[in-house]
Amino acid sequence: MRSLAFNAAYWVLSILYTLMAAFAALAPGHRATRWIIRRYVRRMVQAMRWLAGIRIEARGRERLPEGAFIIAAKHQSWGDGFSVYSQFEDVAFVTGDHLERFPLLGTVLRKLGAIVVDSCGGPEARRALIESAAQARADGRRILIYPEGHLSKVGERFRYRTGVFHMYRDFDMPVVPVATNLGLYWPQESFAKTPGAAVLEFLDPIPQGLSKTEFMVRLEAAIEGRTQALIAEATGEPVRASVLVDAPVRASAA
Q1: pLDDT tens per residue, the chain (254 residues)?
Q2: Cβ of 191: how many Cβ atoms within 10 Å?
């Protein structure tokens, strides 16, 4: 019954706030649209807690640097975006172009200043990512990116894509890795939800100036290592290394 109630609320809230944001997007400027989306995110986090019984425990906020920075997060659940976005007043998030296929969403994404890239990756996607991220950095916004590019199952990982490194290098921005075990309670796109305390943990920022290889190794080790530790903490099982799996056929490396 919890899952049914939450999923009903999910779609009602999503449709209602998308329509409100679409109307707001017709007005000059972006303030109204971003205000509505912030309220949507907060209502969704409340619905997760009150209806699905999933409480988000944020850890490590004291590690967050001042000013603009990149948030590189583990992606196990549709709820990840809500849990991260709810921790900030304004976030420029990186998303695939598949969302633009839904009516109204393209206009809303543009007003939000979202960084929309070709989900198939490649040089064109990388250039689009860098150009959009440059504007977000100029505006002093935090940038949220999921380095794997896809939703992974608990205990699994995809190869980390290098778009985050190019932003880190080109803009000389600190990168904050984020670990989570939300997938235990809201797995990927699953209808079924499990009540519990899901942890979202901000880890130590990766220092600037690292080479591509050093950066990618350090980023993946931080996110995957701590994510697996959070899973073990919640389940009472031993810490196990995540298993590398092949990415969906549609997408290639960015």
Answers
A1: 889 999 999 999 999 998 999 899 888 888 899 999 999 999 999 999 999 999 999 999 999 998 889 999 999 999 999 999 999 988 888 776 666 566 667 778 777 777 776 655 556 666 766 776 677 777 778 999 999 988 999 999 999 999 899 889 888 889 999 999 999 999 999 999 999 999 999 999 998 899 999 999 999 999 999 999 999 999 999 999 999 999 876 544 34
A2: 11
- Please enumerate in sequence order all residues whose Cβ is within 8 A of that of 125, keeping only pairs 6 or more positions apart, or say none: 117, 118, 119, 163, 254
> What is the residue type of 252?
S
C-alpha 200/C-alpha 185 separation (Å) is: 13
Rounded Cα distance between 112 and 91, Å, is 9
> Which pTM does this prediction carry?
0.88
